Amino acid sequence: KYSDENHIISTEKIREKLKIIYDVDMERRAIYRNIDALRSMGIDIEGYNENREGYYLIDRTFEPSEIRLLCDAVAASDMIKEETTKEMIRKLIDTQSIFHGRMLQKTVFVKNGRKVWNKQLFYNIDTLNIAINQGCKVEVRLLEYNMKMELAESKHSPLVISPYATMWALGNY
Questions:
Q1: Res 118: pLDDT
Q2: What backbone torsions phi and psi does residue 2 show, to the nearest 5 degrees?
Q3: Cα–chain center distance at 15
Q4: Hey, which bits of the chain come out as E strands?
Q5: pTM attached to this predicted model
Q6: Cβ-count burial of 131 within 10 angstroms (0-12 exposed, 13-18 middle, 19+ buried)?
Q7: Given this model, what pLDDT does residue 112 score?
Q8: How far apart are alpha carbons 36 and 55 in whole angstroms?
Q9: Spatial contact of 57 and 14, defined as CB atoms under 8 Å apart
Q10: Could you tell me if 11 and 31 are in contact, meaning their C-beta atoms sit under 8 angstroms apart?
Q11: What gap in Å lies between CA 163 and CA 97, rounded to an integer?
Q12: What tens digit of pLDDT does each residue of 121-173 get?
């Protein structure tokens, strides 16, 4: 979190961070052993032997440009309320170093205004994906606005469907 290719962290700085964040006083040799253990688990860490400065995490799950694209997609969605949008963007940004995170926070904006929210959205998507993976049918109840502009069950409801995929089109599933 505190390192990237432009922000190499020394063993002494690692010790300081461990003390400040976790109240752990770790000796230098223990830090070397822990870094070796992380490397043995497949975590790609550039080290002092390669750069003569210190350590940094080489490869993260997502590149900053990918996180930016995902943040913009979440921010643009009308289906996710503003509070949840901000929380999801924070989680995405947290996958980056604090330095890349700060840059992303300055450039990602959440639009205010018309965001329609259905609490069940995430649960419904999960349920459909489970049904797709298990080859199950799903009973759905369709809703529509009536003449009084009230949300009411459609005359075509309930409907039994065999879902094959969930698709994102024009900002909606």
A1: 64
A2: -105, 20
A3: 29
A4: 45-46, 56-57, 138-140, 143-145, 151-153, 159-161
A5: 0.64
A6: middle
A7: 67
A8: 12
A9: no
A10: yes
A11: 39
A12: 778 888 888 999 999 999 988 888 888 888 888 888 888 989 888 887 776 67
In angstroms, the CA 14 to CA 34 distance is 11
Cα-flanking dihedrals φ and ψ of residue 143, to 5°?
-115, 150
Q: In angstroms, what CA-CA distances link 161 with 57, 153, 154?
A: 47, 17, 15
Q: For the chain, how long is the longest CA-to-CA vector?
A: 74
Cβ-in-10-Å burial (0-12, 13-18, 19+) of 126 comes to: exposed
Q: Which two tokens stand for residue 132?
A: 């797709």
Structure tokens at 63: 């590149």
Supply 47's token pair. Answer: 């080290």
Pairing of the two strands 138-140 and 56-57: unpaired
